[in-house]
Design goal:
The chain is mainly α and about 350 residues long. About 80% of the residues lie in helices and about 0% in strands. It contains 15 helices and no strands. The two termini are about 25 Å apart. The relative contact order is 0.16. The N terminus is likely disordered.
Length: about 350
């Protein structure tokens, strides 16, 4: 039975015909162009209204008022949005493949909850008040919870179901802890209220440089496990027959998702639904091959994140709505639609 199924399963991840590869490549190019347009819009459009001439002047000529607004704030915000969006898309792709759950997201393994718990602890009990301090505590919290989920999930004997259950249980406990501390400590509540909903508004060059090494490392590691994850999608027995190292692949995938999501959460707070929606939608037109899902997710996730950020800045001028709120508003109905579609397909 196993021998008969291997050729059919292999066909799912076999090299695509030239025409199909050309279409995917063209689609990737179109996605890059869309990303460039959204990035330009993120720099040109904000809570403060500026003409295109003022934006151009601020970018390339002025070092005064317009330069401070455009270069000092919007460019840093846009760059951070590009990096964080790509990280969330890649981590969501890896986790959906690892857990074999197309509706999984980076919060499934408790990474967001670990980062939030570490930040609120640092604020309340250690007196940390700056974003540069948040970054390191959030990342350490995410990494610690990722390791704990791996241990509780069975370490070398970890399975997708065990990892998901361990992550869900830890998330519930840690978010309960976060809410309890914030209720008891008004200072922590005041400092955490924007971070907990996810925001790009506090982006600085320092934040970008602090998280950049982790995002680069996580990205490289994600692409390194693409082929083994393709094999694991066929089932453990088939993956072993094809030479995949299951435990090593699961451990490296967990590490990649933890590093990416932990660094993204550290910089911007927990931003929901980006890591769920984009990889899931991408899979519908790329197929199950992770070698195509990952590049598309890394490009289209920043499109969603920056687009939501621009919408939030325009919707409440001269103030703004945090990007985490916008992605939640968009993601909730989309998630319900995806779940209902899957149920309908199974009936």
């Amino acid at each position: 039975m196993l021998v008969d199924s291997v050729p059919e399963q292999r066909a799912e991840t076999a090299p695509a015909p030239p025409t199909r590869r050309a279409i995917r490549s063209l689609g990737l190019l179109v996605a890059v162009l869309v990303l460039l347009l959204v990035a330009v819009a993120s720099i040109a459009i904000g809570a403060k209204e500026l003409s295109l001439a003022q934006v151009w002047h601020g970018l390339f000529e002025d070092t005064g008022t317009y330069g401070d607004v455009v270069v000092g704030e919007r460019v840093s915000r846009t760059v951070l949005g590009l990096l964080v969006g790509a990280a969330l898309g890649l981590s969501g792709s890896v986790l959906q493949a690892l857990t074999r759950n197309p509706l999984a997201d980076p919060g499934l393994l408790g990474i967001n909850a670990g980062a939030s718990a570490a930040v609120v602890t640092a604020i309340t009990y250690l007196g940390v008040t700056s974003l540069t301090g948040y970054v390191w505590f959030a990342f350490l919290g995410a990494a610690a919870v990722g390791a704990l989920v791996w241990f509780l999930g069975g370490s070398r004997g970890a399975t997708p179901v065990r990892l998901a259950l361990a992550g869900t249980a830890l998330s519930a406990a840690l978010f309960g802890y976060v809410q309890a501390v914030m209720i008891m400590d008004k200072a922590a509540l005041a400092r955490m209220r924007f971070w907990t909903v996810g925001s790009l508004s506090s982006a600085t060059e320092d934040t970008i440089w602090q998280v950049l090494p982790f995002l680069v490392a996580g990205t490289l590691l994600s692409f390194a496990v693409a082929r083994p994850l393709n094999a694991m999608a066929m089932g453990d027995d088939t993956a072993k027959a094809l030479g995949a190292h299951l435990n090593r692949t699961r451990a490296l995938s967990m590490l990649a998702a933890t590093v990416l999501c932990g660094a993204a959460t550290a910089a911007c707070g927990p931003i929901v639904f980006v890591g769920l929606m984009v990889p899931h939608v991408v899979r519908s037109f790329t197929g199950p091959d992770m070698r195509w899902i990952m590049p598309f997710a890394a490009i289209l996730s920043p499109v969603l994140l920056l687009g939501s950020d621009v919408l939030g800045r325009v919707a409440a001028r001269p103030s703004e709505v945090q990007v985490g709120i916008i992605t939640a508003i968009i993601g909730g109905p989309v998630f319900i639609f995806l779940v209902r579609r899957r149920r309908t397909a199974q009936l």
